[in-house]
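Researcher: Structure for this, please.
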Amino acid sequence: MSQDNGGDGAREGLFSALKNTVATLVAIAKTRVELLVTELEEEKYRLMSMWSKAIAAAFLLGMGVLLGVFALAMAFWEQRVLVFGLFATLFIVLAFVLVGSLKRQAAQPPKLFRASLAELEADMAALRRHAHRAESE
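Model: Predicted structure, C-alpha cell format:
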C-alpha cells in the first residue's frame, strides 16, 4: 500500500508541476500579447503623426504656390506684392521644414515588435539555461 501511495503522490506532484508549468506559460503568453498590443498602438500613433505632417506640408506648399501666383499677378500694384511675397515665402519655408521632419521620421526604423522580440529572446535563453541544468542533473 505504501507503494501505491507513493505512486499517487508522484502522480499528484507531476500533475501539479504540469499545471504550474501551463499556468506559467499562459501568463508569459498573456504578457507578450499585451506587449504586442502596446507596440501596435505606438506604431499607429507614429503613422498618424507622419500623415498629419505630410498633409500639413502639402497644404502649406499649395498655399505658398497660390500666394506666389498672386504676388506675380500684382507685381506692379503698390506694397501688396511685398506682403503676398513674404507670406508665400513663409509658407514654402514651413512646408520644406515639415517635409524635412517627415523625411527624418520616415528614415528611422520602426520600433514595431522590437521589445516583444527582445523579451522572447530572453525567454528562450532562460528556457535553454533551464534545459541545460535539467540535463546536467
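Researcher: Any notable elements?
Model: The chain has a mean pLDDT of 81. The longest helix spans residues 2-73.
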